Amino acid sequence: MSKSSENLTKLRDLPDDELQQALATTRDELFRLQLGQYTNQVTSTAALTTKRRDIARILTILNGRKSGTEKQAQKSASAGEGAAEAAPSEKKKSTRKAKAKS
Predict the structure, then answer these.
(1) Residue from 45, 101, 30, 65 nearest 93 by CA
(2) Rounded Cα–Cα distance for residues 99 and 102 (Å)
(3) Contact 58/11 with Cβ under 8 angstroms?
(4) Which long-range contacts (CB under 8 A, 24 or more apart) does 9-14 make?
(5) pLDDT tens digits along 30-80
(6) What is the secondary structure of 14-51 as a DSSP string?
């Protein structure tokens, strides 16, 4: 599993209030990096891109929860629900293939 997908999984496990706090912290870190770049103190410009993408990930999760398309992941229930949701979609795919062959 890549580092960004692990970070995304951790973010999805957080409740909304902690996500808001992580958003504020990340925005502050981005501000400090931008200020450091302006004063020639930042040597790694890749950190700026990483922080901007982290902010985008957090905002995407928060907006998805607000619109109802995404829910907070439940550690114990997510494995059972994921398997239950995957099975019906596979059945639909198989019936579509069968209809296409007919």
Answers:
(1) 101
(2) 5
(3) yes
(4) 9/73, 11/57, 11/58, 11/61, 12/61, 12/70, 12/72, 12/73, 13/72, 13/73, 13/75, 14/72
(5) 999 999 998 988 888 899 999 999 999 999 999 999 888 878 776 644 444
(6) S-HHHHHHHHHHHHHHHHHHHHHHHTT----THHHHHH
Q: What CATH number does the domain located at 3-71 have?
A: 1.10.287
Give the position of tokens 């990340």. Answer: 26
In angstroms, the CA 85 to CA 102 distance is 27
Contacts for 75 with CB less than 8 Å, ≥ 6 apart: 13
* Domain extent listing, the chain: 3-71, 76-102
* Whole-prediction pTM: 0.65
